[in-house]
Automatic annotation (TrEMBL):
Keywords, ordered alphabetically: ATP-binding, DNA damage, DNA repair, Hydrolase, Nucleotide-binding
Gene3D superfamilies: P-loop containing nucleotide triphosphate hydrolases
Record bears the keyword Transmembrane: no
GO CC term, one of those recorded: bacterial nucleoid
Protein name: DNA repair protein RecN
Length: 555
């Protein structure tokens, strides 16, 4: 359930905070007051794209924060998967928007937009003003059926999608192998040349790095030898070198020590230094002896490195990649050498995968048809509750000859809203107001199936009035008995049903325009209903009518 919404510096909103309640929360207000901005901020917090121009003028950043409390096991598992702390069912989602970046956090842990979008559908379902139009696309009807029996259908859909991709890859491979005999021979000759070139090089793993180090050493041998000889001259050369000076110093300390035993420690330290210097000089001499420049060795190193770099330029930028290219080429060569057998093998594999895919597609069709029976009945009952008195509703199945990741089913919702008329595809006959009610019916059914705790409807009352509006309000109130519902409406029949009634109001002065949201008291709610009923002039009769609507709604 959505407990709290906090928005700061977003479009017309300077800063507002609202605590939502259980059951039915209704938001009303004049056109342009900022209702859509508020709903849009919830969508944005849950991962929708946020335009940078939504930051309020004069501000450096905007903040949207949602606080949920949930008992959903699916949410708990997702939080564990993301390794996000989750205590007492509380989830805090925040998005801070600046001109340069958007920072997403869940329970104070930074998350990617992808993870935010994974978590969001488990927390609430939001029906925007344009979502009703999705019903006009039959491909979305299939998604509704799959959502209704998600637990049964999803595992089979995943297997179907996996087999479909395997099937497509095999078909692609087969189409790519469609070559003539002459082309096959040319390809084999070229592969043979490349394989031979790599094999003749006899490359060893890590060889290039070792050779580079040797090459650097040999190519700078003269400079190294010169510098090391100079160092040796300083430490062990003619009179006045470091070795002679330290030796003389040791002798003088012996003299001091004979006169003062306290100098013994100094003598021992200098003797150690003298010994270390002698060791150093011996090692340095050995290093110098090893640095004799060998022109033939240098030429061999250079040739070997040139060969390796040539192969890298052709086959990959490392010895490992060259070896992989070689192995792949050998595999291709063997396939082309036994071309007919290779093609037959692909065809056999393709046939096996197609058989498995047919089995999974048939399972999907069977599960969907099983799901369609109770779903059809539930939708019909919900539509009758929404003032479709003589409605007929069916779910029509067709099977395509082509495979897809979703199987081979094509589904279409068929409806008749008038007595005596045969059912026809929903997208051919449904009006805007009918689409609103059909979407409301479907959303309420899917929410029961999926265990969604919060439903948000943005102007679900589009295109309806009178008795139909009253039926919609009753349906919303019925849904809200089992879960939290947040709805924006312009209809007093719906607003009268509110368990918590909020007013979104816009105020302006010479400098700025600000939208705010307020929780209304009972009397304030009656006045807002009167405004919705009576428009500009609110009479005592209108107020009385509003108060009566509110009283009847509570019964």
């Amino acid at each position: 359930m959505l407990i709290n919404l906090h928005v700061k510096n977003l479009a017309l909103i300077e800063e507002t905070e609202v605590d939502f309640t259980d059951h039915l929360n209704i938001l009303t207000g004049e056109t342009g007051a900022g209702k859509s901005i508020l709903i849009g901020s919830i969508q944005s917090a849950l991962g929708a794209k946020i335009p940078k121009d939504m930051i309020r003028n004069g501000c450096d950043s905007a903040l949207i924060e949602l606080i949920f409390h949930t008992k959903s096991e699916a949410v708990r598992k997702k939080m564990e998967e993301f390794e996000i702390p989750f205590e007492d069912g509380e989830i805090i989602i925040s998005r801070r928007i600046t001109n340069h970046r958007v920072i997403n956090k869940v329970n104070d842990i930074s998350v990617t937009i992808g993870r935010l979008k994974e978590l969001s559908p488990l927390l609430l379902d939001l029906s925007g003003q344009h979502e009703n139009q999705l019903l006009l696309k039959p491909q979305n009807h299939l998604k509704i059926i799959d959502s209704y029996h998600r637990n049964l259908i999803t595992p089979i859909k995943e297997k179907t999608a996996s087999l479909y991709h395997e099937y497509q890859e095999l078909r692609q491979t087969l189409s790519e192998q469609n070559m003539g005999e002459e082309q096959r021979i040319r390809e084999m000759e070229f592969l043979k040349y490349e394989i031979q070139e790599i094999e003749e090089a006899n490359l060893q793993s890590g060889e290039d790095e070792t050779l580079e180090a040797q090459y650097q050493k040999v190519s700078h041998a003269r400079e190294i030898l010169s510098d090391c000889s100079a160092v040796h001259e300083m430490t062990a050369g003619q009179s006045g070198c470091a070795g002679d000076l330290i030796g003389s110093a040791v002798q003088k300390l012996y003299t001091v020590e004979s006169m003062d035993a306290g100098a013994k420690g100094l003598t021992e330290q200098l003797q150690t230094i003298d010994s270390l210097l002698n060791d150093f000089n011996r090692e340095l001499s050995g290093y110098i002896d090893s640095m004799e420049f060998d022109g033939e060795q240098f030429a061999e190193l250079e040739d070997r490195l040139n060969l390796i770099n040539h192969l890298k330029a052709k086959y990959g930028d490392s010895i490992e990649k060259i070896q992989k290219y070689h192995d792949d080429s050998v595999e291709k060569y063997e396939k082309l050498s036994n071309y007919e057998e290779y093609i037959s093998k692909i065809k056999r594999e393709l046939s096996k995968v197609r058989e498995k895919l047919d089995i999974q597609c048939d399972k999907l069709t069977s599960l969907r048809k099983d799901a369609a029976i109770p779903l059809t009945q539930l939708i019909k009952e919900a539509l009758r509750d929404l003032n479709f008195l003589d409605v007929e509703f069916e779910i029509a199945f067709e099977q395509s000859a082509q495979y897809s990741p979703h199987g081979r089913d094509t589904v279409c919702f068929m409806i008749s809203t008038n007595p005596g008329q045969t059912v026809r595809p929903l997208h051919e006959i449904a009006s805007g107001g009918e689409l609103s009610r059909i979407m409301l019916a479907i959303k309420s059914i899917l929410a029961d199936e999926e265990g969604i705790e919060t439903l948000i409807f943005d102007e679900i009352d589009t295109g309806i009035s009178g008795r139909t509006a009253q039926k919609v309000s009753e349906r919303l109130a019925c849904i809200a008995k089992k879960r939290q519902v947040i709805a924006i409406t312009h209809l007093p029949q719906i607003a009268a049903m509110a368990d918590a009634h909020y007013l979104i109001e816009k105020t302006s002065d010479s400098n700025s325009t600000i939208s705010n949201i307020y929780l209304l008291t009972e009397e304030e709610s009656v006045k807002e209903l009167a405004r919705m009923l009576g428009g500009v002039r609110i009479t005592d009769a209108v107020l009385q009518n509003a108060r009566e609507m509110r009283t009847l709604a509570k019964q």
